């Protein structure tokens, strides 16, 4: 599967703020790979802004046909907050994403139409700065590499779509890296060949929701 076919997810958390008729709308977006992660994120935002008037959440867990979608108006007029926020998310091409729009009421009522525009724009603004990445099932691996093979092993990790997490220099170089699951057999064979069988690749853990190394431009 090419990178462009892999599911797009947020690479990391992002936040922006707009002001509409003296009301502040603070939009915070992040990756979330389960309903529990999304709920935990929403609870954290509520704790961060305990004096806000509303915290309007929306999230999409999964991709394609297997998506769990959720939104809530959190005390705003029905249909004026959560649904518009979710609609913008659904048009973004992202999955495994959660957003909370925190509102501090500024004293002027916006009406349902004004709320729809404000919440939609808040989500659009945070998505505009939200870096994208791909979700790649990956193995975390550890390798003890003799110095003569170090550069070649580093290159093999890069060539096979992996990313180095840590390098520890001692009698040998201990590398901890992430390698895509579908590339692992070829990567393992390449390391064996280039090191004449001296370097073993040991799998530490497998993460089906690993965020890949290459962020994508905002859509």
What are the key terms here?
219 residues; alpha+beta; Ribosomal Protein S5, domain 2; 2 domains; four-stranded antiparallel sheet; 5 helices
Strand content: 25-35%
Major sheet strand order: 2-3-6-4-5
* Uncertain stretches of 5 or more adjacent residues: none
CATH architectural name of the largest domain: 2-Layer Sandwich
Number of strands: 11
Count of individual helical segments: 5
Largest β-sheet summary? 5 strands, antiparallel
Report the span from N to C terminus: 21 Å
Average pLDDT number? 91
* Name given to the CATH homologous superfamily of the largest domain: Impact, N-terminal domain
What is the C-alpha radius of gyration, as a whole number of Å?
A: 22 Å
Order of helices and strands: EEEHEEHEHEEHEEHE
Top CATH class of the largest domain: Alpha Beta
Q: Specify the helix fraction band.
A: 25-40%
Helix/strand/pairing category: alpha+beta
- CATH fold-type name of the largest domain: Ribosomal Protein S5, domain 2
| Backbone shape | elongated
Domains (count): 2
Can you tell me about this structure?
This protein is elongated. A hairpin with a 2-residue loop joins β4 and β5. The strands form three sheets. A five-stranded antiparallel sheet has the order 2-3-6-4-5, sandwiched between helices. The relative contact order is 0.18. The mean pLDDT is 91. With 219 residues, the chain is an alpha+beta fold. The protein has two domains: 130 residues, Impact, N-terminal domain (Ribosomal Protein S5, domain 2); 70 residues, Alpha-Beta Plaits, CATH 3.30.70.240. α2 packs parallel to α3 and α4 packs antiparallel against α5.
